[in-house]
Amino acid sequence: MPVDAAMRVAHVSFFVDPAGRAPAALLDAWPTLANLAPAISTDNVVVTVVQAASADALIERDGVQFQFVRERRPSALQRRLGFWSSPLTGRVGRRLVDLSPDIIHIHSLSFPRHVRQVRAALPDTRIIVQDHADQPIAGWRRNVVRASLDGIDAASFTAAVQAKPFLAAGVLNERARIFEVPESSSMFTPGDQAAARSVTGLHGDPCVLWLGHLDENKDPLVALDAIRIAASFLPDIRLWMAWLEAPLLDVVRQCVQRDAVLRERVMLLGPQPHSRVQTMLRAADLLIQASHNEGSGYAVIEAIACGTAPVVTDIPSFRVLTGEGGAGGLSPIGDAAAMAASLGQWAAVPAADRRARVRDHFERNLSFHAIGARWRAIYQDVLAG
User: What's the rounded Cα separation, in Å, for the pair 342 and 237?
Assistant: First the structure.
């Protein structure tokens, strides 16, 4: 690349929206798609987005060209087999050849055959693949993945340690460089808490919010146990629980109903539109999450963006997102007593100081501006290497 030339980067996603929404609708529905590339793009780094979609379209927004390329959606059988078996047509690959980028940034490790197709079409271009809560593919398919991902130059994870299962399974080669960068960010901002509480009806001292599925991985029962324990020294604590999917809903209801402490303090809100989440986070003092495993943690990112401190489990992604606990509480998985103590510690921080501290961490480490700068540095590093 000539010294004075701008670096050309192509962001690529092979995921075709199952709902078949129009390209413009995807930009409104998928914040990472719409906001990450513009955050990276500068006069010296030109980013073009190539997104598999149900229809061809060319949209320019915030200085970035979004090229939507019509690709076939997976059949019912292919959906059962997994993203790796999604149809190959070569249309995205041909678009990339036309662009001739210096760096190809592919979203998701779950499309190895597509990565291999891109590598074959552009053998000398640097390829980075970004983890999006992916898992190493097991069984007979692993050989397909190993051969397909062998040609990448780098991979990124929210926490670098998340690469270990992929390396142990042999689906990432040890020559590939591993980078640590948050999966995404949020456009949420802090706001007036009193006004947010008036709109949402949320209250409590502290007011604690749960945002997440009611399933075994999210472990709502540990969160409820933490609230029950914390009530002994935070008598006015209130927990408000919102979710999308709820396989454990009956269990959670029974847990709340049979415990007098929880009955008085836990409100089950049910599914909430995403347009309401920012206001709910502004109303809350703390977010609680008891997850066993997360690729990233969008609710945690959104909470920090609002200045709402997360009280969460000490897992790799949450450790990174909270700055090793500097902007939120960390407690061992399954340890309700430790989580209750963490609730008490963060509730004791004066509200204005707590919100300023958490939001400052967001601006410096998790904002689209900060992530954009991180990605530009990674691109330079990979290209130089």
Answer: 13
Asked if residues 185 and 365 have their Cβ atoms less than 8 Å apart, the reply is: no
* Residue 257 CB contacts under 8 Å (≥ 6 apart), including other chains: 263
Average pLDDT over residues 153-161: 96
Number of other residues whose CB lies within 10 A of the CB of residue 348: 11
Tens digit of each residue's pLDDT (9 = 90 or more) over 237-281: 999 999 999 999 999 999 999 999 999 999 999 999 999 999 999
* Residues 342, 376 within the same domain: no
228 and 140 fall within a common domain: no
Q: Which residues contact 307 (CB under 8 A, 6 or more apart)?
A: 190, 354, 355, 356, 358, 359, 362
Closest CA to 319 of 156, 133, 160, 179: 160
Within a domain: 232: yes
Distance of alpha carbon 385 from alpha carbon 383, whole angstroms:
5
Q: Is residue 104 part of a domain?
A: yes
pLDDT bin (cut points 50, 70, 90) of residue 140 is: low
DSSP at 132: S
- Nearest C-alpha neighbor of 104 from the set 113, 92, 89: 92
Q: Is 2 a member of any domain? A: no
306 φ, ψ (degrees, to nearest 5): -85, 0
